[in-house]
Amino acid sequence: MAIVKMQKLGICALNRNRKAILETLQSMGIMEMRLEDLENNCDLKEKDTQAARAKYEKRAACFEDALTLIKQYSGGGRSGLFAEKKALDRSIYDEAVRNRHHYNVEVADILSAERKIQECRGIVQKDENLIESLVPWKNLDIPMSMTGTRKTAVLIGTLPGIRTSQDVIALLSVDLPEPPVVSCEIVSAENEMTCLCVICLSRDERAVEDRLRAVGFVRPSLPVTGIPSEVISGCEKEILDQKQLIAQLQKQIDSYAKERSFFQLMADYYRTRAEKYRILGHIPLSRNAFFLEGWIPADQAERVAQLLTEKYDAYVEAEEKREDEIEPTLLKNNRFAESAEGVLESYGLPQHGKVDPTAIMSVFYVIFFGMMLSDAGYGIVMALICGIVLRKRRNLDRGLKRFLKLFFFCGISTTFWGFMYGGFFGDAIDVIAHTWMGVPKDTAVLKPLWFAPLSNPMRLLIWCLFFGIIHLYVGLGIKGFELLKDHDLIGFFADIVSWYLLLTGLILMLLPTDLFHSISRMTFSFSSGVTAASRICAAIGALIILLMSGRSRKNWAIRIALGAYDLYGVTSWLSDVLSYSRLLALGLATGVIANVINMMGSMFGSGPWKVLIFIVVFLLGHTLNIAINALGAYVHTNRLQYVEFFGKFYEAGGRPFAPFQTKTKYIQIKEEK
């Protein structure tokens, strides 16, 4: 409906009130700070608040980590698409802030417990890896570090392939005049590797080892000195102890689950503090005073100025906008139109002095969405889901709440058009009546209040194009309104009235033709006066466009050429109007797919088990259909607004209003009255 008028305020106050004033402005959340405008003044300085800001950001991160751990070990907590902020009284918030050191200690305990858990898991992983590497050696009954006695040598290691003790002894005896005295024990042989222990006399150690190395002998590199079976037992005991300790630590973290809401509060508190210190770090200071300026809604300027003056003895002055400044844009609409603000913001906000098209766009948006989805059953489901969520979750994020409101209204529109077209989960009522209730198949149970598009698609096409023409005419009218507001009467007649005359004349000339009748099966017969008037309107409109579109040029040849080029733009109007045929296409697609789903579910007959089959097919099929076609309706309705409607008048470029405010993730503070 309107763009909120903004006022620029300059604030000067004593340094001792700096934090208090910022906290007040932050809690009010209605002023956008414009700090950079004063930074180039060499007589002013800035206070370094980076350390304090980093401290509060770190504390907020600690509370977030603690919340993540509590959710991990105890479950529950804030999650899901429709998670809402918890409303808290100001007194509860203030009490928690006073006890913040207590919560800091608890969070430190949680994070310390998590570090210990990670250490324990590291030990468990290390022991498990060691056990896995010792499994091939578990039958070895001497220490892994054993190298021999005074007269014997012990060679412990691996050979590639699967070998027996006889193979190894035979290998050591080849090509030797006096085979060494050796004993070979195969500890394990699997996975193409043999673990063995060879014992020989000390004098033969070098010859035996050289012979073994020649065939791939390798000593183990395990960090183990004891008997493998004993080491494995020790590791298993240590793993059990570490897992018990992990369970205790997890239980310790889980015990803090009851403090979850306070941890959320403190996370938001420290985030708020960090944001305040970010602003503090950019405030220009003199020796005794500081300076602020920013944008505020004009209707709030006097109240804020009075509050700061009386409470903090600040000097507040209304300032004029500089030539290169762009005022921030804040939209103000009724509850219905407000739901579509997100659609407009996705395209771009309007600048001050321009029209806010949200209210008009929202009406067309809801109507067109309903025509595209066009099934009463789908609309009821959509409206119920959105309505229940909005009813149960009152503290949702503003953007999500607007989105749900928009789809609630779209669901109502879909329900309306569904009954107008005679669609309720496709032809589900007729199919159920014909299959299980004995109603004759040639009898329609749910009749359309208007007409059935599947039976008369061309009729619906004509109506879709008619709605499209209205949509485009409204867009052109908004542009005319802006021209009149700027006192550009010549532009209004040359760029708006001329097109109304041309397009209306061409439409009236088309309606009585055989071409239109062959397409629409509709007959129009106008009197000779109306026919002549339509031709005159089209001719006058075309002449104005031809002569006036290039009015900025003094050369008449160039002016006529530019006018002829603009006159050629009538073809773009034709393509724009035809774009509204998507209202027909998506509406038919929804109905056809829904009918096919019902046919598939009922094709098995009317037996008891076949009812169950129908229910399963019905639920799965229609769930997919509503999801796919609701997405299609959303995308194509946006396109009709962005391309066809906005293309006739809208110029974005506005900057969103971003006030300095308390931005919370988990809580919403209820101010005491």
Blueprint (SSEs and pairs):
Blueprint (H helix, E strand, L loop, with lengths): L1 E2 L2 E9 L3 H11 L3 E2 L11 E2 L3 H25 L11 E4 H9 L1 H35 L17 E9 L4 H9 L8 E9 L2 E9 L3 H10 L13 H27 L5 H21 L3 E2 L3 E9 H15 L2 E5 L8 E2 L1 E2 L2 H4 L2 H7 L1 E2 L7 H16 L2 H17 L5 H24 L6 H9 L20 H29 L3 H22 L3 H7 L7 H21 L7 H12 L2 H10 L2 H21 L5 H38 L6 E5 L10 E4 L3
Parallel strand pairs: 5-16, 12-15
Antiparallel strand pairs: 1-13, 2-10, 2-11, 3-10, 4-9, 6-8, 7-8, 14-15
Helix pairs in contact: 2-4, 2-7, 2-8, 4-7, 12-14, 12-22, 12-23, 13-14, 15-22, 16-17, 16-21, 16-22, 17-19, 19-20, 22-23
Commentary on this structure:
By secondary structure, the chain is of the alpha+beta class. Helix 12 packs antiparallel against helix 23, helix 16 runs antiparallel to helix 22 and helix 19 packs across helix 20. The radius of gyration is 40 Å and the shape is extended.
How many DSSP E strands? 16
Instruction: Calculate the terminal CA-CA distance, rounded to whole Å.
Output: 30 Å
What is the 3D form?
Answer: extended
Strand content: 5-15%
What would the average pLDDT be, to the nearest integer?
90
What structural class do you assign from the helix and strand content?
A: alpha+beta
Radius of gyration, taken over Cα atoms and rounded to an integer in Å: 40 Å
What is the helix tally?
23
Largest sheet: 4 strands, antiparallel
